[in-house]
Fold this sequence. Notes:
The structure is a homotetramer. By secondary structure, chain A is an all-alpha fold. Chain A has one domain. Chain A is 77% helix and 0% strand. The first copy, chain A, has helices at 3-20, 39-65, 72-86, 88-97, 102-130, 135-140, 144-160, 164-179, 183-192. Chain A is globular. Chains A, B, C, D: Keywords: Ion channel, Ion transport, Membrane, Potassium, Potassium channel, Potassium transport, Transmembrane, Transmembrane helix, Transport. Chains A, B, C, D: This is TMEM175 family protein. Chains A, B, C, D: The chain crosses the membrane at residues 6-27, 39-57, 77-95, 107-127, 147-180.
Amino acid sequence: MNKTRLEAFSDGVLAIIITIMVLEIKVPHGHEFADLKPLIPKFLSYIISFIYVGIYWNNHHYLLHGLSKVNGKILWANMHLLFWLSLIPVATGWMGEHNFEQASMTLYGVVLFLSAIAYFILQRLIIINEGENSVLAKAIGSDFKGITSTILYVVGIVSSFYTEWISGVAYLAVALLWLIPDKRIEKVFNSKD
Amino acid sequence: MNKTRLEAFSDGVLAIIITIMVLEIKVPHGHEFADLKPLIPKFLSYIISFIYVGIYWNNHHYLLHGLSKVNGKILWANMHLLFWLSLIPVATGWMGEHNFEQASMTLYGVVLFLSAIAYFILQRLIIINEGENSVLAKAIGSDFKGITSTILYVVGIVSSFYTEWISGVAYLAVALLWLIPDKRIEKVFNSKD
Amino acid sequence: MNKTRLEAFSDGVLAIIITIMVLEIKVPHGHEFADLKPLIPKFLSYIISFIYVGIYWNNHHYLLHGLSKVNGKILWANMHLLFWLSLIPVATGWMGEHNFEQASMTLYGVVLFLSAIAYFILQRLIIINEGENSVLAKAIGSDFKGITSTILYVVGIVSSFYTEWISGVAYLAVALLWLIPDKRIEKVFNSKD
Amino acid sequence: MNKTRLEAFSDGVLAIIITIMVLEIKVPHGHEFADLKPLIPKFLSYIISFIYVGIYWNNHHYLLHGLSKVNGKILWANMHLLFWLSLIPVATGWMGEHNFEQASMTLYGVVLFLSAIAYFILQRLIIINEGENSVLAKAIGSDFKGITSTILYVVGIVSSFYTEWISGVAYLAVALLWLIPDKRIEKVFNSKD
């Protein structure tokens, strides 16, 4: 099994996911600036989801960079990750259409949480494949960011039932956590190259 | 004719097929959890179709891995396969919108059946091209999975006229049959590599 | 300028064009077989357009195979071709929705005609680039198929104003003309390889 | 970080952006030529946006050609550029649906302006990475075209509040400015190759 085609397929799916989200921002019917107002929550939810998919693309890239051989399990773990990520546009659209209301914040958190779990499974399988002493395994280490993100998603989901803005802060915090480039992995691989 | 570009084009089409299916899950108009309820059959039909397209992508990958030279016939047999696969989103959407009702179960089975036939034709042409003694021909052998799948599709189509859930079981059975990684092909190619 | 990225971009656009056409086949609202009936003209128009885009992808592949160096003119001639091809889904949708009625047959012919002109321009620029004695120039020769197709499009467009089915025959004839693999180019390149 | 995958992902996103714009040209309900009339402004706005995205793809290609090593900042600057470009279809659709009316002309200009800023940031980061004496830095030089474009966008945005057609002229002028192949960069790289 060739890694290149797995990367190409994942890139294709991620490129489509990130781009079809924009289709949720429907062209307004009116022709004045005021008609753009209902698009603001949609636009904001688009920004955050764009960043999320960008982060996943970025991390996915590093993860597969450290993979030497694809097997059936890894292939399906990758599909599983793409599956949950493919639901981000729907969750984003719902959140944007209903101005970050309670249920949509919960759903968004659930999709992000399940994506994170799927990513974790893929990461585990790749580490098992490469060995606990591999460069990748060392680079990931205790996976501080991954664990923190998962906790923040749970915080976001639970708090969405009480105070929506706390969910929002939790989801934004995860995005910021990852936006800062992952020095650990970059450093280890660079020293290897 | 270059195999790389055939793979790249097929990957692109399959990535788009698997992702536009999610567009059938329309953002619900209400803003409560209850408004997600009508999405459940759509979601379930999305899961199964996602798995199906994933299986085709996976098998297609192995099949083309064993191909040494593309000719016009193989190119069009590949297009023919992509054609039927491209109808999966419509069939999935219909099935999801009408809660797996009779006619939609029949249509879904027909699309899957014709995709299987198209795959079989492509496989035959590649084997003819590579020779009956090629690694690929040996790996496919009696094509137990392919034949079983085709029979199960027919069972699913016929039973959809009487009892829908038997169709559902048949389609699920095919998905499970293929989800288990194809040890035969993997083994043969690995021993070759 | 790298040819690979031009091919990759064109492949991406063609893969999307061929796949978004299926979005014109909207999921029927009813749940019986009879509800599929209005989809028949859409389905037929989808088949023919799928074949057309497939032919363009195929020919485009051969054409760029014979190209050694991309320049700005070729790049924009390629964009120009993609532009007209990108209108095929709209023309297909209109033709399918109105059961191959007069105006839609004219429009379809016009889009195909302009695509053919764009292809011809791209071909000329590549031949100029490669030289009249290049393998590609010899392979294309008098461009019998290209000229015949253009004439048939004109026949189709003109006859659409009087008898729609003659247009249909003309467009189908072009598709069949190209479906038969282009022995000329294949032969020349194979002898070169 | 591998440049190839960054290019592939960007190509995918740009190919999708350029193609989904055509989805704004909805299939007309009537079946006569007159029913195509309301599509004319949509078609014109599609042409100009198609050219714009084509220009960005072209320039992006040259820019990344001159890049030797991807880092986190460049990756996110690239995502930032793709973000603004992904809004072109919505802005195009609005402009087309409302016949180039005032607010839509302003919005279109703003999206183009922000895309230009994002491109400028990406260019700066790459030059910093490659060094002020790099081939790329010399090729870009005083960035006459980039600066002129930005000024023209501002002119277009401001004039959209008074006379829409001046905006139109400004946006068209930018497109023409870039359509002429960039001799500077091409020359420098060609002399290097």
